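Researcher: Please translate sequence to C-alpha cells.
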Amino acid sequence: METSVDIEALNQQIQIDSAFIEDIKSEANQVIVGQEYMMDRLLLGLLSNGHILLEGLPGLAKTLAIKTLSSIIDVSFKRIQFTPDLLPADILGTMIFNQKSNEFSIRKGPIFANFILADEINRAPAKVQSALLEAMQERQVTIGKETFKLEEPFLVLATQNPIEQEGTYPLPEAQTDRFMLKVNVGYPTKEEEIEIIRRNVSGSIGKKVKPVVSAEKIIKARKVVKKIYMDEKVERYIIDIVFATRNPDDYQLSKLKGLINYGASPRASINLALASRAYAFMQRRGYVIPDDVRNVCKDILRHRIGTTYEAEAENISQEDIITEILNSVVVP
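Model: Translation complete:
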C-alpha cells in the first residue's frame, strides 16, 4: 500500500516536472519537420545523462536537430567538425607558453561546453576519437597536470554517415560502448518532404528558436527520473535480454550462437534501466513497464552486439538479432 501511495505521489510530481517536454517539442517543430523519433531519442539521452550517436544519410536534419535542441535549452553549445587532420588538442585544449609571465597557461578547447556536437565523428582517426573518452565517462578533462570538471548538463551528440567508407575511421569498440544510444535516422514521409520543400523555398527554414528550458530544470528532471519505480521483475527482464546476447543457448536461441561474436556489456544493462525510466518519465508515468524496456531496447543494444562473418553473409543485422531476442525472452 505504501508503494502505491509513493507511486501516486510520484505520478503527480512527474505531471508537473515533465511539462517542459511538450514545450521543447513544440518549439523544435517550428524548425524541424517530422523526425519525431530522433527528437524523442535526443530528449531520452538528455534526461538519462547519456551520450547519443546519430547514424544516417546526409540531409536528414541530424545536425539541425542537435543545434535546435541546444538553442531551446539555455546552455552553451560547441560544434566540432571531425576531419582527418584534427588533433586531440583541437578538442581538449593545450598548454600555451606565455613569454611575458615566462610560464605555461592552459587554453581550453571546445569540449568545455554543455552540448558538444561531434559532426561526422568517424572522419577523424582513433586517437582523436579517444580524446573524448575521459570527458564522456568521467565528465572531466585532463590537460597537462591539471584536471577540470565539466559543467552539467554535459552531452556529446555525434553524427556519422553509414554508407561513405572513403576517408573514414570506424569507431573503436570502447568509444561506441560509451554512447548510451545509437539512433538510426530514416527518411521523412512524402507529406513531411513536401513541407520541407515548402519551408526551404519560402525561406522560413532559417527560423530562430528561443530558449524555453533552463539547465537547472534539466538537472532537476534527471533526479526525478532516477526516482521512477522499477519492479524487480522488470529488472530481471532487462538482465534476461542482455544475457541472451551473451548466452543465447540459455534462452532457447541456439540459432543465434553462430551469429553473435560478442554480447552486450554491463553498460547495456545500466543504460537499459536508465533509458526505460526516462521513457516512462516522457510518458508522464512514475513506474516502468516492460513495454518501456522494449521501446528503447534497439537503440541501447544495436551498437553493443558484435556479429560474425556468418551473420554478415546471411545479411542478418544486430536489429534482427535483438528482435529475435525480444520475441523469445519471457515478458513479466
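Researcher: Any highlights?
Model: The longest helix spans residues 266-282.
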